[in-house]
């Protein structure tokens, strides 16, 4: 059974005016841990924020506020989120993210919305937002000076998908080709609708991220019952690729156990998805210094938090090896109405002021989204987001450092 030692918790970034969430990290060759995350334009979930980068030079203990940099700022008509980062063999940094746009912005609706919420004095009327905001696509930015400056956004061609959403950074194969995991749909432009479930797929670039094309399908359900989302890739010592995916079943959208697929040809073809006994989402996987493999994932039901599991060979994963990295992450109370997500039907995720229920927390269940690296001394640094215990709770990003003890 895996046990942890030398556990400590550290704040990466906390701002009471803005929710900060969905962090992704990589350990650079210079020894820094670089984190990118989404800073919402409001203290609510809105998927319209901006991508922020920050660094730790002491293994995740402290995060230098002077290194904080907005990579792609929001504008009055666009925002971006769901960012990931990777470092290529030549030192180039690549950030991938999703850009959203606002339509009919500034045009007053003639008819009142059917929803009475969310309308706030500070942030205006969101009740139409889910109909006037849409994903514009997935893009990458490149930096050849260790993240000091960044290129213009480079569009990722996801055809035949109508849209693709990302979660983690790209992965570089030994050949130098880049793979990017996305999830999306062929007939629909959003996450839901048209009677089509979500599939996961790989985009590939053979020129350092300048051009991208659809490479392979990771998993999809032709019956459109199961959603396969937010793929997490792992490169095994023997050259195989393993991918874990979050799942939901329709029409309820209930979250089910994660599935895994395996590729023996650098990601061109994949085995049928295999159900595991591990519940949680989304995941990230790394190879440990001792040759074993580690997966971390969010746990969005009581008692909530972030969990991990070890595999000896990278293809055998079981809940028997599960351990807790962080328990909790939900506040106990909120002093004000908490709007849900602007990209869903009004009221979805909304929570009234007062005590927060662990069984029906609304949008407060949105915790986790972990990312993980391991330092040369064996210390594991797992980053994630959770809710503060401020009177008006906000999401913030933090890291847990630990060592594995058998």
Keywords:
globular; single chain; 406 residues; four-stranded antiparallel sheet; 1 helix; Neuraminidase; 29 strands; five-stranded antiparallel sheet; mainly beta
3D architecture notes:
There is one protein chain. The chain has 406 residues and is an all-beta fold. The chain has a domain of 282 residues: 6 Propeller (Neuraminidase), CATH 2.120.10. Helices cover 1% and strands 48% of the residues. The chain has one helix and 29 strands. Strands 12, 13, 14, 15 and 16 form a five-stranded antiparallel β-sheet that branches. Strands 1-29-28-27 form a four-stranded antiparallel β-sheet, with no helix packed on it. The longest helix is centred in the N-terminal third of the chain and has 4 residues. It is globular and about 60 Å long. The mean pLDDT is 93.
Quick recap:
The protein is mainly beta and 406 residues long.
List the helices and strands and how they pair.
Layout: E1 3-13, E2 20-27, E3 33-39, E4 50-56, E5 64-72, E6 78-87, E7 93-102, E8 119-120, E9 124-125, H1 129-132, E10 133-143, E11 154-155, E12 163-166, E13 171-172, E14 178-185, E15 199-205, E16 213-219, E17 226-235, E18 241-249, E19 254-263, E20 274-275, E21 283-287, E22 293-299, E23 305-311, E24 322-327, E25 333-334, E26 354-355, E27 368-374, E28 380-387, E29 395-405
Antiparallel strand pairs: 1-29, 2-3, 3-4, 4-5, 6-7, 7-10, 8-9, 10-11, 12-14, 13-14, 14-15, 15-16, 17-18, 18-19, 19-20, 21-22, 22-23, 23-24, 25-26, 27-28, 28-29
Helix content: under 10%
What fraction of residues sit in β-strands?
A: over 45%
How would you spell out the order of helices and strands?
EEEEEEEEEHEEEEEEEEEEEEEEEEEEEE
Number of helices: 1
**Uncertain regions: pLDDT < 50 for 5+ in a row?**
none
- Alpha-beta classification: mainly beta
Q: Report how far the terminal alpha carbons are from each other.
A: 7 Å
State Rg: 20 Å
Compute the average pLDDT.
93
The overall strand count is: 29
- Annotated CATH architecture of the domain at 3-155 and 277-405: 6 Propeller
Gross morphology: globular
Major β-sheet annotation: 5 strands, antiparallel
CATH-defined fold name of the domain at 3-155 and 277-405: Neuraminidase
CATH class of the domain at 3-155 and 277-405 reads Mainly Beta
